[in-house]
Design brief:
Chain A: This is TatD family hydrolase. Chain A: GO terms for molecular function: hydrolase activity. Chain A: Belongs to the metallo-dependent hydrolases superfamily. Chain A: Keywords: Hydrolase, Metal-binding. The complex is a heterodimer of chains A (about 300) and B (about 300). Chain A is α/β, with parallel strands linked by helices and about 300 residues long. Chain A has one domain: Alpha-Beta Barrel (TIM Barrel). Chain A has 14 helices and 10 strands. An 8-stranded parallel sheet of chain A has the order 1-2-3-4-5-6-7-8, sandwiched between helices. Chain A has a two-stranded antiparallel sheet with strand order 9-10. The relative contact order of chain A is 0.15. Chain B is mostly helical. Chain B has 17 helices and no strands. In chain B, helix 5 packs across helix 7 and helix 7 packs parallel to helix 9. The two termini of chain B are about 35 Å apart. In chain B, about 40% of the residues are buried. The chains are: A alpha/beta (about 300), B mainly alpha (about 300). At the A-B interface, helix 2, helix 3, helix 6 and helix 14 of A face helix 3, helix 7 and helix 9 of B.
Chain lengths: ~300, ~300
């Protein structure tokens, strides 16, 4: 099986993760711009972070046969530092129109403050103006209300529902998202919140249409193999193979390919890792033999 | 009359772009020619990815010959069509000689993605006042992204023409370290030096200590300097070397002026390819192009 993890923060992960992900069949990832775990202190920090997402991290992923796309946006937590957030928003046109940037995101609410709302609206407008997909992060606290509000505001600004991906759903929010016509993504967290077992039941109950599985793996306790693990559990529990394909590959591709920033033909080619072609042993390989011509195992 | 390099970019593009991409290029060229803001310049370079793909440029022999005549040392074998379009966009500005352009060009590197970074560096040989960008090119060589480094170092006349000795030697040594095809560094032959040969010989000994194989490109760094260290190095590796490595060693010995040694090896050599290399060397042919022809295997491709 091949997998697409449409929400994972690879800058926080090691090359071991990349290796294991490729071995498990993950062929493509989307890395949304997000919070770095502690507050940023100046706009230069955003510049270098966004530049990393479209530069170094893209290169790093390519060394493991994984296609790396990203989203650009000012996240909800950092929206609350109003002065800095305004400066960061000025960077949007410089980064969001780049090759391989598949959405504005992850944006939305954290505490649902007026500052968050202003930054969210501003970015929704940017997405509408540039015909872009939007990836929405929904809050951990007061989630149900947050999901509804995220959808309402996006609709008011004029985001077409088929270009809206609402992430971090659970059993309580999924119906509202599907009813609105948006895509409903689920983050599989080990031990907490949404686990693979619950995900299987969601797919059983709601079917595979517009449902997307992701890992949101980052610098916290998280699992970059959540998507393949969930797929295998679905298989064990008798979920239809086509539903697994949709929720763990095709839906993410369909949602984000609307950006025009995924070369689908290129992505569908059999990936071959050739580290000797574009690899420096002063960067990620350190003296070991580069891997050549070993097709990614699926 | 020889066409200007920038006119050639347009000709090559017209042969390759789809109709809609061609419209984008024509409109952008007109816009750039009449003056744009820094952010619009940046946006046009970014938006090019919506119109051109990363397919190889693949010049015909005629086009290759035209390019060689217009801009000796430049080869587009590793260029893709998106890069070609982006380089054309950069050079479509009418103020290339101005300080404003230099500042705008430098600013692009701050916000450039991986593909744009390569294209920006590929533009260097096309820019007037090339000495203005020497720091930028040196900075680019500090990258850890191999495709970015290759875009500066390989198939381009820029480094040999403008780098000082320190930066030049670092470029060649880094290419060797990264196991890139050294024969694709333009004017490597004319900028060989005693210092570069010493650095390469030191590097070879480091590789020996680490028990790692020697890259054939090493032998392209040989010159008459330090030749007393060359013979023992060849002696240590000759027996176990593959034929293409032996060919490379022959080239290295010839470049160091060790023709007696080459003759000596000829007496016992039975491999046809190595024998061919020996003939070439003794006939005075051991430049980087001969090296490429004799040593580089069919399957050696480029990033």
């Amino acid at each position: 099986m091949r997998f697409f993890d449409p929400h994972i923060h690879m800058v926080s992960r090691t090359t071991d993760d990349y290796q294991n992900m490729a071995a498990a069949g993950i062929r493509a990832v989307i890395e949304p711009a997000f919070w770095m775990g502690q507050p940023r202190t100046n706009v230069g920090s955003f510049v270098d972070y966004f530049a990393t997402l479209v530069g170094w991290e893209r290169f790093r992923a390519s060394q493991f046969g994984i296609s790396h796309y990203c989203t650009i946006g000012v996240n909800s937590k950092e929206a609350n530092n109003e002065g800095l957030a305004r400066e960061a928003l000025e960077l949007l046109p410089l980064f969001a129109l780049k090759e391989g940037v598949v959405a504005i995101g992850e944006i939305g609410y954290d505490e649902m403050t007026p500052a968050e709302e202003w930054v969210y609206q501003h970015q929704l407008q940017f997405a509408v103006d540039h015909d872009m997909v939007v990836m929405v992060h929904t809050p951990h606290r007061d989630k149900k209300n947050g999901v509804l509000r995220s959808i309402d505001v996006a609709r008011e600004v004029g985001v077409p529902m088929e270009k809206l991906v609402i992430d971090h759903n659970n059993e309580e929010t999924v119906q509202s998202v599907l009813d609105a016509g948006a895509w409903a993504a689920f983050t599989i967290y080990p031990n907490t919140k949404m686990g693979s077992e619950r995900m299987v039941e969601v797919v059983r109950q709601y079917g595979p249409e517009r449902i997307i599985v992701d890992s949101s793996a980052d610098w916290g306790v998280s699992d970059p193999l959540s998507v393949p693990k969930t797929a295998h559990l679905m298989q064990e529990r008798g979920i239809d193979p086509s539903a697994i394909e949709l929720t763990c590959w095709q839906n993410a591709l369909d949602a984000y390919a609307q950006s025009g920033q995924i070369d689908v033909e290129e992505l569908l080619k059999e990936p071959v890792i050739d580290q000797s072609q574009r690899f420096s042993d002063n960067s990620v390989l350190r003296g070991q033999q580069p891997r050549i011509d070993e097709p990614v195992k699926n | 009359m020889t066409p200007m390099p920038r006119e050639l970019l347009d000709t090559f593009l017209q042969q390759r772009l789809t109709n809609t991409a061609s419209d984008f290029w024509q409109n952008a060229r007109a816009e750039l020619g009449s003056g744009v803001s820094r952010s619009r310049f940046s946006a046009l370079i970014a938006l090019a990815s919506r119109h051109a793909k990363r397919h190889p440029v693949a010049l015909s022999e005629t086009e290759q010959a035209q390019l060689q005549e217009a801009l000796p040392g430049l080869d587009m074998r590793a260029w893709n069509q998106l890069e070609l379009l982006r380089v054309a966009l950069v050079t479509a500005r009418s103020d290339l000689e101005s300080d404003a352009f230099a500042a705008d060009f430098e600013a692009q590197f701050v916000y450039a993605d991986e593909g744009e970074t390569c294209a920006l560096y590929r533009a260097l040989p096309f820019l007037p006042g090339p000495e203005r960008f020497v720091w930028r090119a040196g900075e680019g060589c500090r990258t850890n992204m191999l495709n970015v480094f290759s875009a500066i170092a390989l198939d381009s006349p820029y480094p040999a023409a403008h780098f000082g000795d320190t930066a030049w030697n670092q470029l060649v040594m880094k290419a060797l370290f990264l196991e890139l095809p050294l024969w694709r560094i333009a004017e490597l032959d004319s900028r060989l030096s005693a210092e570069l040969t010493r650095m390469a010989l030191d590097f070879a000994e480091e590789r020996e200590s680490a028990g790692r194989v020697l890259n054939p490109g090493l032998w392209l760094c040989m010159s008459p300097a330090n030749k007393e260290r060359l013979q023992p190095l060849v002696a240590r590796h000759w027996e176990d070397a593959e034929p293409h490595q032996r060919c490379a060693m022959i080239m290295g010995l010839a470049r160091a002026g060790e023709h007696t040694q080459v003759q000596h090896l000829a007496e016992t050599e039975s491999d046809i390819d190595v024998a061919r290399a020996i003939d070439a060397a003794l006939g005075g042919n051991f430049d980087q192009h001969t090296f490429a022809h004799l040593v580089v295997e069919e399957n050696e491709s480029q990033p």
